[in-house]
Amino acid sequence: MIGRSFYFVLLLVALACSCGNSPGKPSADSIPTNPDDVSDFSVLYAKNCAGCHGIDGKGGASIALADPVYLSLADDSAVRRVAVSGVSGTSMPAFAKSAGGMLTDHQIDIIVKGIRERWSKPGALSGANVPPYAASPGEASRGAAVYSTYCSSCHSAAGAGGVHAGSINAGSIVDGTFLALVSDQYLRTVVIVGRPEFGAPDWRGNVPGRTMSPQDVSDVVAWLISQRPKFPGQPYSNSDKAAGGHS
Q1: Residue ranges of domains in the chain
Q2: CA distance linking residue 131 with residue 161, whole number of Å
Q3: What was the pLDDT predicted at 135?
Q4: Are 200 and 194 in contact (CB under 8 A)?
Q5: Which of 12, 151, 166, 242 is most deeply buried (CB count within 10 A of its CB)?
C-alpha cells in the first residue's frame, strides 16, 4: 500500500510545476526590458540612427554610414564624438546620457563598433590622396572658381540645382534653410565623400581625370559657408522691417 508520504511528495511536485503558470504571473517575454540593458547593435541602430541615416546605413536625410569612403575618412573617435554630443545647431541630437541623450556609454560603443565592423572596408582608399577630415582654412573667393569647375555641372552655375545626366535632379546647395540645418563639417564631409546613394561622386569623380586637391575642398567649403544667411528663416529683409512693413 502506498504511504501518505508518497502522495505528499507528488503533491509538492505538482505544486512546483504549476507555479510557473500561476494566474497573474507575467510570462518571461512580457516583462519590460530596461532600455539601458539593450546591447544588440541592430536594435540600437534601428531605434536611434536609421531614421536619418537609413535602414542598413544606406542614407536618408543625412549621409550614408554604410559608405567605406566615409568610414575611411572619419575614424572611430570622430564618429563617437558626434554620436555622444550631437552637432549643435543641426538636426543631429546628442545620444549619450552624459550629454542629455538616452544611451549609455556602452551602447554608444556598440553602435560605433557595429558601424565599423559591418560597413567599413580596410584599404578602401589605399593609395588615394585623401583630403583631411578636419577643417583647414579655405578662401571663399577661390572657392567660387572651384565650385564652377567641380560642382556647377550638377548643381547649376549659381548652385540652385539642376538636372544631371538628363535624369537626376541635383538639389540646391545654396538654399538658406539647407545651409542653416547643416554644420561646416557636414559640408566638408559631403564634398569629400559625396552622397553615393544619390549618385553624387566623391572628391575624385566630379571631373574625369581631375581630382580635387585638399585646398580645393577647403576653398569650396568656405564658399558654401559664405552662402549661409546671417538670419536663417527670416522671410524679409532688415530694411523692410525697419520701414514698418512687418511686425
Answers
A1: 37-119, 140-226
A2: 25
A3: 87
A4: yes
A5: 151
Domains 37-119 and 140-226 share a fold: yes
Do residues 222 and 140 touch, judged by C-beta distance below 8 A? yes
For residues 160 and 92, give the distance between their C-alpha atoms in angstroms, rounded to a whole number.
24
In this prediction the pTM is 0.78
CATH class of 140-226: mainly alpha
Rounded Cα distance between 221 and 135, Å, is: 9
CB 170, CB 206: distance < 8 Å: no
pLDDT above 70 covers a percentage of the chain that reads 79
Instruction: Band the pLDDT of 33: cuts 50, 70, 90.
Output: confident
Check if CATH label 3.30.70.20 holds for domain 37-119.
no
